[in-house]
Give the backbone structure.
Amino acid sequence: MTDLSLIPREEAVAGSRAPVFARAALYAILILFSVYYLLPLFVMVVNSLKPLSEIQQGNMLALPRDWTLAPWLSAWDQAQIGIQATGLAPYFWNSIKMVVPAVLIATVLGAVNGYVLTKWRFPGHRIVFGLMLFSCFIPFQIVLIPMARVLGLIGLAGTTPGLVLVHVVYGLGFTTLFFRNYYEAFPNELIRAAEMDGAGFWQIFTRILLPSSGPIIVVTVIWQFTNVWNDFLFGASFASPQSQPITVALNNLVNSSTGVREYNVHFAGAILAALPTLLVYVVAGRYFVRGLMAGAVKG
Amino acid sequence: MGSLDIVHLKKSYGSVQVLNDINLSIEKGGFLVLVGPSGCGKSTLLNTIAGLEPISGGEIRIAGRDVSELKPADRDIAMVFQSYALYPTMTVAQNIAFGLEMRKVPKPEREAAVKRVAETLQITHLLDRKPSQLSGGQRQRVAMGRALTRNPQVFLFDEPLSNLDAKLRVDMRTEIKRLHERLKTTIVYVTHDQIEAMTLATKIAVLKGGVLQQFGTPGEIYDNPANLFVAEFMGSPSMNLVRAGVDPDGAAVTLARGGEPLRLPVKAGRILAGYCGREIIVGIRPEAITEPRTENGADPSVVVSDFRIDVVEPTGADVYAISELGGRQAIGRCSAGYPIRAGQTARLAIHTDKIVYFDPKTEERIG
């Protein structure tokens, strides 16, 4: 019994020093890793705001002496992309025209799939879901040639709608998975109550399920937006020069410089290409974790 | 409001029969309670009435119309769910009006209906809130309000009080009873709580293992349980079921106990024919074992005897006296003032006209 009374006192003595030390170590590690992860962004930002001559002097980490927006303007609408000096602007709009429908269609279809697979189960629903899940694991490269053939057959080769179709098909497995898991935890009694209230298939979906689906819609949109925007392979394989997305154009910008390599323009272009996804994360990111957790933990 | 008839209803999942030849009917304005232990099929039965689960055989008639093949929405019924199932993104008013909206009732009429129901249930001040901002009892009221707006033929309640705490449950029970008496609605109500069943029902159906054990008024179920299961399930504390030997002439039963055996006459003019000299099971409600009262001194059906009391359990209003009878712990119910002590003997009166007899093999009531 005597040693029991001693233990708390020893702990109290050690305890007063340990948290301060642990805190300090924790912050040191966090700061170290923050610097490590932020350094590339820092290099990109500062160098995109320098004249080329400053970069050529060799100090990539220094702040600009002459601040300039010229590299950004050049990357946006003057720089040489392939054989044309159009800048990234037209390709940026190409990407928007591809991403928006691809995200919307895949999200809507995924939501309907999830709804049917959880609340209107039919014989064989497990197999159907299993196959859709399987599509998440097929590497892009495997389908390149069959996909090119299909796009050719239906007359969408080299067009933005063709790219949209490819991304919708590829995204569907994931969006279905997200919505199915989310709706799996959605109480069936609510669906039954709506059924007894006289609501039909679509009314239950639009009036009961969709208004409760905010978090998972955000997750799906972020996921799908990031994947489609950042995709290079499908863009490089299936787009014509007129419909190329910004990722392919960025590659062309970096590779097609004749003579001097304009690193500052390349940096600015790379940031421009990454901005939309960054923006989506900043705006909707806090819902992302919430939505990811929603399917996993009940209640 | 309409009547409900269930005729030879069968329900099976594959080869597993969950409801076996159920026959029930409740008149217009009646309150039918389906009661039984978990897994007895009572909720499944309710779901088949609702149309949420298809039946495998038989017929369900609402107001005389066969609805067995109709969709839930076309059966003219409303249901209150165990979890209340309020639409989380809608306000209380929208929740209540949703059923009318889906049936394309014009907006002014809908608003009038919501107002009327909200006044009935005293939830007018909650109409603009979301379900998450309500307490359990308030959610319960809203769920009932949603059912009430449509004025259906039959209301279905699926264990509506099981999510409330004990005190609120009693209050809401009274409220449901009052509502039923005022609105004269036909109600089918599922519960596993036999007190709810006794207090609310005009008719009780006791189920076990998908088989209807007994169907009758609360009084019939309580006083004349059809078998040992019903006898034990209904009533709290439950009925004393003890072994007893029948006299050779069938006019009395003898119960073994510590001292002298207890001999109880069978109700005057009745004979346990066919069981003479055999062993049966005797069922005595706790309130039929009580303190002797002067007014039944000359009543030949009241047997007074000395009992050795093992345990005394005062509940405030009553005192439970526990004594050995027929090899089991029997419980008697005396009024609080009756002086009994554990370890001592006390005089208790047994009202033999309240006794029921069971066949020990078939477990059915005799006679």
Q: What stands out?
A: The first strand of chain B starts at residue 4 and ends at 13. Chain B has a mean pLDDT of 89. Residues 4-233 of chain B form a domain with the Rossmann fold fold (CATH 3.40.50.300). Chain B touches chain A through 21 residues (CB under 8 Å).
